[in-house]
Amino acid sequence: MAWGLVLTAAVFWSVRNDPPTVPEQRDAGQALPALRAAAGAVVEAAQEERWVLRLGELRADECSLTPVRDGVEISRDVTLYVAEGEAREALDSVTAGLPPAYGASVVATRGGTRLSFYADAGEFIAIETMANSADRVLDLHVSTGCRPESAGVDLSDPAAGPVPAELTTMVAAMKATGSGADGGSGSGESFRSAAVPCPSGGTAVVYVADGVSGDASGVPVGVPDGTTPVWSEPGEWAYRNGSESVVVTAENARQRATVTTGCRAG
């Protein structure tokens, strides 16, 4: 009986403390560079100018490695906004644009109405989505899977350059339509940016303005003359302006505006 207790304690200590012995045990911090590279590859593969893309923020979610060991999954989405009926074409385009080593594929079921996309970016990084053929918003989920936690892992992305004029112009137009107590003239929004590497050697960057006091129930504003949004809902819209993708989404009583660049040289 005593020997059994000792053995159980030894196993428990080993699960908690032994160093990784196979690649899938590499901790979350060690997986971050591969995750960023995979997200950059998706952005590069999705640069077709008919569609709009948005590079999402890094997220860390708790998960269970074993019944007695917690872990963390780090992920980010690259979201595609497409015209009606173009979901399959967009996913096929991403499949063709990703590095061949990823083995990307799209499988259609239910008479072609259900689409499953999957790619293996290496280092146990998966890229996947499930969508209907009629969907116009496609979230390509890039994930490390459940990993051992790493002490002090830094989820902040490398900073990018100055906020582009496309974003500041959009924010000014949104604030001009605001109907809050500040009459839309407040400066409650905050700007931030993040960058990921692309297979071509360039960099994809997302610039974000949070907390914009615009009219979250209104029609698109700040869209350049002659440009038609690829996607729009009340208080939300997405359009393409050259290599820059602009997306506005409602965030509670305010809005968030993002500009995602295509892959470009430093």
TrEMBL record:
Source species, domain of life: Bacteria
Protein name: Uncharacterized protein
